[in-house]
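FIELD: query
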Amino acid sequence: MIFFYISLSTYICFNIIKYKNNLYTLQKNKYDIKKYGQWIFKNYKQTFLNKELLSIVLIIIAFNFNLKIIGVSTVIFYTIMFLLDYKKKVKLKIDKPMINKIVLLILVFIGLNIWFILDYISYHYADIIFDNTAFYYIILVLFSYFSHFVVWLINLITKPLDKKHRG
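FIELD: result
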């Protein structure tokens, strides 16, 4: 079970940096939904054709191998990704709109991880509740790869809260 937590922690460490960078980009675009959406597509090489495209290999592994191989692959891949992106950290200005986005993002991550932990425990104690741990790895990979869209969607959801705080 310790290896499961290691794979989850490497994923989370990488995504903290990645989502922080994405939130910084959103902040540079002044939380404008349209501007940020245009930025995503104008910079498609940075958002889609990047080194994380290799994470699709993890999805293929999820369909073809057992959970231990998926876990090992996740640890190796996201550790390498974390080490490559560690120096690219940015400093966010924490204002009320940013706090709303961070809180919602954390709630989404907590929800996904609680689901995964429950699924993992049920899988390993023969009390199969969910029986879709490989599917969860696929969701994690997609949640990371499409992080710009997740940030865009979170911005869209929190937009009414931002207006409430401004006026």
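FIELD: remark
The helical segments are 2-28, 33-42, 44-47, 55-64, 67-85, 96-124, 133-145, 147-166.
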